[in-house]
Amino acid sequence: MNNLASSSISFVVASEPNLLKVRLKQRVMERRCSPMTKRHLPPSLKKKLLSSCLPPSESPPQEPPKELSPPCETEEYQRHALFSSPSMPNISLAAHHVLSPDLSEAAVRAACTARLGMPLTGQMLPGTLPFYPSLPAIESEHEETPLDTISELQEPQQSRGVIRPLGRTQSSPLPLGHPLLEGPPPPAPQPPQPPPEEQEQRDLELRANESRSIRPLSRALSSPVVHLGVPDGPPLSRRRASSTPTTGLAYDSQMLKHACICGNNALHPEHAGRLQSIWSRLLETGLVSRCDRLRPRKASTQELQTCHSEAHALLYGTSSMNRHKMDMSKLSSLPVTAFVRLPCGGIGVDTDTTWNEIYTAPAARMAVGCTVDLAVRTWTGDIRNGFAVVRPPGHHAEPQQAMGFCFFNSVAIAARVLQREHRVHKILILDWGVHHGNGTQDIFYDDPRVLVVSLHRHDDGNFFPGTGSPGECGAGAGLGFNVNIAWSGGLSPPLGDAEYLAAFRSVVVPIAREFGPDIVLVSAGFDATDGHHPPLGGYKVSAACFGYMTRQLMQFARGRVVLALEGGYDLPSICDAAEECVRVLLGDNPSPMASAELARAPCANAVVALQKVIGAHGAHWPCLQEAAKAAACSFNDAARNEKDDKDTVSAMASLSMQHQTPNMVSGYHPGCSPDAGRPSA
User: Fold this and answer.
1) Fewest C-beta atoms under 10 Å: which of 8, 200, 475, 553?
2) Cα(35)–Cα(422) distance, integer angstroms
3) How far apart are CA 545 and CA 550, in angstroms?
């Protein structure tokens, strides 16, 4: 009985419930096409499989094989014995160790209790398994195991000293009805969505409000940007927290899609190649990687209406579906209420300003949004200054009129947003394009908080757009805050660096210094550069001169200067000028100008134009009277004269100090007696 009990205990220890399950499960699943089917083994073979788990050291007394089973069954069973895995507790598979059929369950329980010191649980009994709702019973797997699978696993017996229980596996399929097998709950009913146009407008307004919030982006580290690789540089929202504000760049490829439907850029000078060329130049020179990219966005309708009428904003800023919803009485107030057919076969507002029904409105709103964000973030200190590479241009756009390639006045809208939402008191707008910014002048003509200064070709009103004479000085409270440096005399000779340098030192810089702006916005048209045909400009201003003018403006408003691209149609010239301006904004020294231009005095036509400006605004800006003497001088002569003046002032100050020093030593002061200050006897 002791032998039987010890053999029973060995059987219990060796028959950990998951031993056969884990070892045979993989083979069973590979050989069976369906886990739900069963293949039954003969009862005699099943009994012998269970009895084979007894190790030989604890086996009971052997009985003759003929009493257990026929010889054929024994031989067949021995050919299909299992091996013991080195990674599992040892299972002896000797065919001659069998379980006595006379052993009862009560005897096994009693023997285990005496040997182990604890009662035997149901999971330790032969033929029983722990219950897992998601797993099939191991006894079923024994019954399903084919004989050829057992024969493949036969190996020599190995002995192991330590029996480790296997971890429970949960890799079987879940039973039917399990909660994890149930599909996701049905989605909640969604509220009705607004029309696409209204949803887009809401998104634009939300983004506009977020962009205008005052928060230092230099501390933001987790925004998604827009990073387009090393050449494109880090976006503004990904700037390192330890870095200082730098130059911001605004650009988006959506503005390239605005084009005439005829597809012939040779007939339309304002085309997408302008932006592509400038952006490629900035990438090639590595300037983009030194700047912060702003996330582009479209301007909202409310922003457009800060400078334009509601009808104008809806006509040129929305799709044809929204235009059908417009109040026709408002539309009739516009000067242009319908588009015209161009000679090229396209559509336009006039013969110059082309219109694309699909792409023009988004591009125009994108140009405004980029410029506004650049100005706002410069004001809030997120960036030091900025350059907006945008199109279509905007300085010709009036409150109710699109013209001269322009639909919305981007710089004017940026100034209005700064005034109304950020309480900026003094804004300087400088327009150095060869064409007069009639739209900007019209919007701020009576506003004393915005000083508008324009350098443009006028030719006594015979050059487009014909406005911008020196006598147009403003109206009402804005009188004197609209300064037009109107060049006349045609192209005899064409103006260059000497004339623009004279205008800066005699008019622009003195007025700006006296005005004291809080921020400087530049309508940066580069159509005064060399390479433009006479109808589009005809002047010969160098890229280095534009860099010098940018440097001069950076001495005001603590360096808060924002440039927005306007005109400029000769690709090499505008690329050179844009590159030079961005370099100067980044803090690089401007390129040297030609020595001949520095030594040349401005032409007579230019001197006459400057004298007209000084005469028209001398009463409003007293500083112009002192600066008028430098209008006819060359750059070098003006620099020498300025140096001589400074030396003279310093010498006079030194003489004054020397005159006062002896008097202070002797104790004599004018108006006092010689004996004053002396001690009495």
Assistant:
1) 475
2) 72
3) 9
Computed over its alpha carbons, how large is the radius of gyration of the chain?
46
Separation between Cα atoms, residue 432 and residue 210, nearest integer Å? 32
Residue 619, number of CB atoms within 10 A of its CB? 12
CA 182-185-188 angle, to 5 degrees, is 170
- The answer to whether residues 568 and 525 touch, using CB atoms and an 8 Å cutoff, is yes
In this structure, the chain runs to a length of 681
Q: Are 559 and 385 in contact (CB under 8 A)?
A: yes
Token code pair at residue 464: 């487009």
What is the secondary structure of 192-228 as a DSSP string? Answer: PPPPHHHHHHHHHHHHHHHHHS---GGG---------
Close Cβ partners of 111 (under 8 Å, ≥ 6 residues apart): 4, 5, 6, 8, 9
On whether 268 is known to bind a ligand per the annotation, the reply is yes
Dihedral pair phi/psi, residue 67, rounded to 5°: -80, -20
For residue 166, what are its two tokens? 């296997």
Residue 575 among known ligand-binding residues: no
Tell me phi and psi for residue 398, to 5 degrees. -95, 170
Rounded CA-CA distance 438/298 in Å is 24
Element (H, E) at 274: helix 273-284
pLDDT recorded at residue 159:
45
DSSP for 32-71? -S-TT---PPPHHHHHHHHHTTS-GGGPPPP--HHHHS-H
End-to-end CA distance of the chain: 143
Tell how far CA 574 is from the center of its chain: 26
- What whole-number distance in Å separates Cα of residue 681 and Cα of residue 678? 9
Residue 263: strand, helix, or coil: coil
Taking the C-alpha atoms of residue 119 and residue 122, their distance in angstroms, rounded to an integer, is: 10
Q: For residue 146, is the peptide bond before it cis, meaning its omega torsion is within 30 degrees of 0? A: no
Residue 629 three-state SS: helix
Contact 362, 254 (CB under 8 A): yes
Q: Of 97, 396, 435, 456, which one is the catalytic site residue?
A: 396
Tokens of 399: 């409150």
260 is in an annotated binding site: yes
Q: How many CB atoms within 10 Å of residue 233?
A: 23
pLDDT for position 153: 40
Peptide bond before 465: cis, by omega within 30 degrees of 0? yes
Backbone angles phi and psi of 385, in degrees to 5: -160, -175
Residue spans of the chain under pLDDT 50: 1-16, 54-61, 63-99, 122-161, 167-168, 213-234, 236-242, 664-681
Nearest residue to 67 via CA among 96, 92, 27: 96
Convert the pLDDT of each residue in 617-645 to its tens digit.
999 999 998 888 889 999 999 999 887 76
The response to whether 142 counts as a known ligand-binding position is: no
Rounded-to-10 torsion of CA 173, 175, 178, 184: 50
Omega prior to 269 cis, within 30 of 0: no
Is 373 in contact with 236 (CB distance < 8 Å)? no
Q: For this structure, is 308 an active site residue? A: no
pLDDT digits (tens, 9 = 90+) for 51-81: 555 444 444 445 444 444 444 444 444 444 4
Contact of 27 with 148, CB cutoff 8 Å: no
Task: Provide the greatest CA pair distance for the chain.
Answer: 155
Domain boundaries, the chain: 250-639
3-state DSSP of 357-418:
CCCHHHHHHHHHHHHHHHHHHHHHCCCCEEEECCCCCCCCCECCECECCECCCHHHHHHHHH
Q: How far apart are CA 541 and CA 530, in angstroms?
A: 6
pTM score > 0.90 for this model? Answer: no
CA distance 657 to 659: 5
Assign domain 250-639 one CATH number from 3.40.630.30, 3.30.30.10, 3.40.800.20, 3.40.50.300: 3.40.800.20
